[in-house]
DNA sequence: GCTGCGATTGACT
DNA sequence: GTCAATCGCAGCT
């Protein structure tokens, strides 16, 4: 199966996100290979229009990868313990990205289980952005890796999905202007798929 | 240098 | 349903 066409990833993140649904991301390490069929993603625009984007305030050491070529892996560390994975989209310098929020393990199930010992069911192995990264064995050190080259990663398009199977809605944990997450309905998922994460509205963290 | 908080998860009531 | 864990980044002094 051919790799995902890089030119298709150079469009705006909102256009790329639905194309990634059903695509299969494979990560091969010394332990073996795990492949995930993507069922849930979120688009982030690097432009000033999107306050939820890590690139919204400009280029920093952390988000540097987002300003590079489309088709590379952008990883970030959050909440002091979790790693999340994104596919860089858009032309270089535009800093768009698509967060991989959930998927179905289609290969390497045993290895994924050893990496996700707290998951009780197989559908929970990659349901949620930090879970997906963990199941694939993605760490911060993988940031910047090319998903379309000859390296440890491969990203292949899946079967084209009929429009009625693609659902959209507000992004998770991200508030838009005035706290309105629905201002950016940039979350895309495969309708009725059990590996789509549960929606949680953006909440302000309590003061401690 | 100091402080507040986040593109979350899992454990617990 | 509620809540703690845990640390790098961004913004401010």
Structure description:
With 208 residues, this protein is of the alpha+beta class. Helices cover 13% and strands 27% of the residues. It contains 4 helices and 8 strands; from the N terminus they run ααβββββααβββ. Strands 1, 2, 3, 4, 5, 6, 7 and 8 form an 8-stranded antiparallel β-sheet that branches. The longest helix has 8 residues, at 13-20. The relative contact order is 0.23. The protein binds a DNA duplex (13 and 13 nucleotides) through residues 42, 44, 52-54, 57, 60-62, 76-82, 84, 86, 99, 101, 118, 128-131, 171-174, 200, 202, 204-208.
Question: Count of helices?
Answer: 4
The percent range for helix content is: 10-25%
Determine the mean pLDDT.
90
Query: Beta-sheet strand percentage?
Result: 25-35%
Categorize the overall geometry: globular
Question: Termini, distance in Å?
Answer: 51 Å
The biggest sheet amounts to:
8 strands, antiparallel
Rg: 16 Å
Low-confidence stretches: none
- What structural class is derived from the secondary structure elements? alpha+beta
Descriptive key words:
DNA-binding; alpha+beta; 208 residues; 13% helix; eight-stranded antiparallel sheet; 27% strand
Summarize the structure.
With 208 residues, the protein is α+β, with helices and mostly antiparallel strands.
Give the secondary structure arrangement, pairings included.
Layout: H1 6-9, H2 13-20, E1 24-29, E2 32-44, E3 73-78, E4 82-89, E5 96-107, H3 109-115, H4 129-136, E6 153-156, E7 166-169, E8 187-190
Antiparallel strand pairs: 1-2, 1-6, 2-5, 2-8, 3-4, 4-5, 7-8
The chain binds a DNA duplex (13 and 13 nucleotides) through residues 42, 44, 52-54, 57, 60-62, 76-82, 84, 86, 99, 101, 118, 128-131, 171-174, 200, 202, 204-208.
